[in-house]
Amino acid sequence: MGTTQAAVDDAMRRALDLARRGPAHGPNPRVGCVILAPDHTTVLGEGWHRGAGTPHAEIAALADATARGHDTHGATAVVTLEPCNHTGRTGPCAQALLDAGITHVVHAIPDPGATSGGGADALRAAGVTVTSGTRADEALQLVHHWHHALTTGRPWVTLKTATTLDGRVAAADGTSRWITGPQARAHAHTVRADVDAIAVTTGTALADDPALTARAADGSLAAHQPVRVVVGHRNLPAGARLHGPGGELLHLRTHDVTAVLAELQAREVRPLLVEGGPALAAAFLAAGVVDEVHAYVAPVILGEGPAAVAPFGVSTIAAAPRWRTVATHRLGDDVLVVAGPTSQEH
Question: What pLDDT, on a 0 to 100 scale, did the predictor assign at position 24?
Answer without folding.
Answer: 83
